[in-house]
Structure formats: structure tokens, C-alpha cells
Amino acid sequence: MPELPEMETYRQQLTRLIQNFPITGADVERPKSLNVDPELFIQKLTGNRIVRIERRAKHLLFLLGSGEVLLLHLMLGGWMFYGTEEEKPDRTSQVVIHFGSQHLYFIGLRLGYLHMHAIPEAEKVLSKLGPEPLEPSFTFARFQSLLKGKNGNLKMTLVDQSFLSGIGNCYSDEICFMASILPLRKLPSLTSEEHSRLFQAMRTVLLEAIQYGGYIDEPLFVGDRLTGQFDAKCRVYDREGEPCLRCGHPLVKTEVSSRKCFYCANCQS
């Protein structure tokens, strides 16, 4: 599932590709991906423009010139492609937005969605999300205050979107590895020094992942050399059995509340 770095990469790339370009139409192959009637969706988009693209947690918000906002959550298996009909991958798209001869394809939206809202409605949908971990206002003191009174394990706390927004399976494991802390640790057992290591690791990992385009496999457009470049830089995620980059011991895979979890049992404690 795309996480904060993947959605931020999409936001940055799509801003230069589609922002303020006239929308010439749309197609809807899966009405369940929407929250409005497909005919109304197409009518509202045609002749409109996306005037700004924002990201909140794992969501993208496409702000329309007419005042509405398209709220995208790709969920598991969802991705996007931008290009001509000839360039399009041989995959089924659930929704397509047309920009003349160029098209934005929403692929794999079986669990995800592209909903149209008035701005206050979108804000209400997103209101239960926790703070953004890369916001300047999210300080170490605030991070520590959020940890107070929490009793769960570290992995499940980091992926809890009401605790912090945007971190999922991949980056929770990468953050714990960089901080040299087991993701299975219970929060009350963590020291203040470990809190500090986690906070710094969180910022370092997320910023590095954004710099290298996240880990998602599929390019956004033909010739895209950014999207997915962090996959080769993952230190533990999906690296079961490979030698740890720090100590050489084989990396371990387990499950925590039905979520995959990767770590080094030797140098994370």
C-alpha cells in the first residue's frame, strides 16, 4: 500500500504534469470507486481544472477550480499512470481523467477510492488522522507527549493513522531498524533516549524515501526515473533472510496483528 513518501512523490510529479491543465473528460469503469453518480462525476470534471494538489497522510487531494475536491486513497494495490492511450500499461483502470491526448489512469482501485467532496466534507473525512510526522510543528516534545499513556507495541502504534498519519508497514520497519529498536517492543519499555532515536529515524527515513521516490514499483509515466527508487534502498522491508547491513545476521520476518514485520533480531533490541 502506498504510504506517505509514495503519495508525496505522486503529488510532486503530478503537480507539474496536470495542475491548471484543462480537463477534457473522464471515464468511469467502476462506479464503486466513486461516491457520486458517474454521470455527475464526469459532468463536474469536464471543462474544470485541478488548481492545486495536496497530500494528507496517505491521501491525495485534487482541488478543483469549481471548489470541490477529489479525495484519493489508493489502498492496497492501487497506483496511477499518466500518458497517452498507447503508453498505458496493459492493466484495467477503474477511473480515467482526460487532459486532451494525455490521460491520468487510476489502476487497482478495488479497495481504494476517488471521492468528490465539498472542502468541509473532505476536512471532516480527514479529521481523525494523527499529525503529519514531517510538519515543522511536529516537534520531539509533541512526539513524546503522544507516546505517553500508550501501551501497545511499537510497530502497531507507528502504523495507527490516528496516532501519526502516513506511516505503514514498510516505513514502520525501516524507522525501527534505523533507530536500532525492535518493532515488537512495548511502548512503556522505551526510554527517553530511544524516543529521540525513533524521532530522528522517522524524519531521516521518510525524507530519504521521498528523495528517492518511495518504493512503489510502477512508474508514473514513460521515462519516470524517480518513482520507486527507494525500493532498492530498503534496509529490512521485504528482505527476509538477507544479511543485515549493520551486523550481517539474517533478517527476520514475522507477523504482528496480521501485518508483515521485518527486523534484525541481533542488532535491534
TrEMBL record:
What SMART domains has UniProt attached to this entry? Fapy_DNA_glyco (SM00898), H2TH (SM01232)
Q: Does the keyword Ion transport apply?
A: no
Pfam families per the UniProt record, alphabetical: Fapy_DNA_glyco, H2TH, zf-FPG_IleRS
The GO annotation for biological process reads:
base-excision repair
Keywords assigned? DNA damage, DNA repair, DNA-binding, Endonuclease, Glycosidase, Hydrolase, Lyase, Membrane, Metal-binding, Multifunctional enzyme, Nuclease, Transmembrane, Transmembrane helix, Zinc, Zinc-finger
Question: What InterPro entries is this protein classified in?
Answer: FPG_cat, FPG_N, H2TH_FPG, Ribosomal_uS13-like_H2TH, Znf_DNA_glyclase/AP_lyase, Znf_FPG/IleRS
Recorded protein name is Formamidopyrimidine-DNA glycosylase
